[in-house]
Amino acid sequence: APGLADALKRAFRQAGGVSALLKPGASQPAHGLAARLKGAAPEEAKAIVSDIFALSGIQPQGHRTLDEIVEGLLAQAADAEHGAAPDTARQTLEAVMAVNCSPAQAADKLLAISRQAGLEGLDPFLERLQARTDRMASLAPDFMKTARFGTPFGRRFNYYDGFLFELFLPGEADGRRPFGAGGRYDTLLARLSGGDVDTTAIGGVVRPDRLTSGGTA
Fold this sequence. Notes:
Layout: H1 4-12, H2 17-22, H3 32-36, H4 42-56, H5 66-79, H6 87-97, E1 100-101, H7 103-117, H8 123-139, H9 141-146, E2 149-150, E3 164-167, E4 180-185, H10 188-192, E5 201-206
Antiparallel strand pairs: 1-2, 3-4, 4-5
């Protein structure tokens, strides 16, 4: 379906985003400024939005930059154009999004789904995933015994375009109050440097108040 691949990439970065995208009738027409930017190149869209702000006297609210606002509007316009996912693709994605297991089982479960769907070319990526989880298990065996791998997990910070993680105190995972969270940057540095730097990195944040007994946030 046209535009669906890009829509899925954005949806995977948000908690519940893929499930919402796969619902029948999830694709809605773009409205307002997003509709006007339909088909525009990023620089063209940025110029249009800049002119509108200048003519109307409107100033961006919050901490979002002009580039972030334009990116969001272009995403809305693109999402409105994608068609519904074919049944086979929808069923496969639903199976992927249902994976919730120990890290040691993750690669095998995803491999089984890919085989069932007749997908090819995924073996190198799944082998890399298995190698990473094996390495993590060798470095932190006790931690990995209780760790969970979940495909539905997403966060609103879309600069993390690799794996994401959250850290919880024992028994507190259900409360959704992690004391640490972050993710991997796979393409961010390349995009920011115009291709001059092609490397990955990991970022995160720790909440000391949640590590103390009885701490509140």
